[in-house]
């Protein structure tokens, strides 16, 4: 899952980013409304956390413009403005939720999970490819009846592959959706994580569940 945090208070933005990264999300920061709007329009995010009082363009205007352009990614407004009028204005602009500063990080995470659950409310929370099952609500993975313990990055890569089971997923697609703009990892970092996934998922003596398409990327075997 990839999250955009639009917050001009850099210390808070970095705290939120660090906490989300520890939870397994890929996070990008924008520090003014114009930058946030541009990033939201040019990159596919799963969630946007948006301050209202931003330089250059306020968060309500950013939210309105994104909705007018049919960008329907969930938006959580995070702001110090706590009046009823401000909440109504933000929600009427198209935001999905509203959290007032100061806030507890646990509550922020609970609201993020709730918003992401709404995205899959019309379909099963389970992703299934062959005998591999991923529950995206409680973030549990099973191969048959066997639970699979994954790190945050391993889970994120596998989730992306399972959400695109019929596609050839390139390394560039994984980098863009699992890591942020600042990613400067080693050239073989994706191969390392895929290798770890194979060690945990594959059955001995069988072809790998995650197939390598030489020079192109990866595809799930059952697809």
What do you see in this structure?
By secondary structure, this protein is an alpha/beta fold. Helices cover 40% and strands 22% of the residues. It contains eight helices and twelve strands. The protein has helices at 10-22, 33-42, 59-68, 84-92, 105-119, 152-163, 171-178, 189-201, and strands spanning 2-6, 26-30, 47-50, 75-79, 97-100, 126-129, 132-135, 140-143, 146-148, 169-170, 210-213, 217-220. It has a five-stranded parallel beta sheet with strand order 2-1-3-4-5, sandwiched between helices. The model has no long low-confidence stretch (mean pLDDT 85).
Write a brief caption for the model.
The chain has 223 residues and is α/β, with parallel strands linked by helices. The chain has helices at 10-22, 33-42, 59-68, 84-92, 105-119, 152-163, 171-178, 189-201, and strands spanning 2-6, 26-30, 47-50, 75-79, 97-100, 126-129, 132-135, 140-143, 146-148, 169-170, 210-213, 217-220.
List the topology elements.
Blueprint: E1 2-6, H1 10-22, E2 26-30, H2 33-42, E3 47-50, H3 59-68, E4 75-79, H4 84-92, E5 97-100, H5 105-119, E6 126-129, E7 132-135, E8 140-143, E9 146-148, H6 152-163, E10 169-170, H7 171-178, H8 189-201, E11 210-213, E12 217-220
Parallel strand pairs: 1-2, 1-3, 3-4, 4-5
Antiparallel strand pairs: 6-7, 7-8, 8-9, 10-12, 11-12
Helix pairs in contact: 2-3, 6-8
């Amino acid at each position: 899952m990839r999250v955009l945090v639009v917050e001009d208070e850099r210390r808070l933005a970095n705290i939120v980013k660090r906490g989300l990264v520890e939870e397994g999300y890929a996070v990008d920061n924008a520090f003014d409304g114009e930058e946030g709007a541009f990033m939201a329009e040019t990159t596919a995010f799963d969630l946007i956390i948006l301050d209202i009082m931003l330089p250059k363009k306020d968060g309500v205007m950013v939210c309105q413009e994104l909705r007018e352009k049919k960008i329907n990614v969930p938006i959580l407004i995070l702001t110090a403005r706590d009046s009823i009028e401000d909440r109504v204005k933000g929600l009427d602009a198209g935001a999905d939720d509203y959290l007032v500063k100061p806030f507890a990080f646990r509550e922020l995470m609970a609201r993020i999970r709730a918003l992401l659950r709404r995205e899959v409310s019309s379909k099963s929370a389970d992703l299934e490819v062959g005998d591999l099952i991923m529950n995206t609500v409680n973030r549990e993975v099973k191969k048959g009846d066997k639970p699979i313990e994954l790190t945050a990055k391993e889970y994120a890569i596998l989730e992306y592959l399972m959400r695109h089971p019929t596609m050839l997923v390139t390394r560039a697609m994984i980098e863009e959706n699992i890591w942020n703009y600042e990613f400067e990892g080693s050239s073989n970092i994706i191969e390392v994580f895929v290798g770890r996934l194979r060690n945990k998922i594959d059955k001995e003596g069988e072809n790998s569940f995650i197939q390598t398409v030489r020079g192109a990327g990866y595809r799930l075997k059952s697809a």
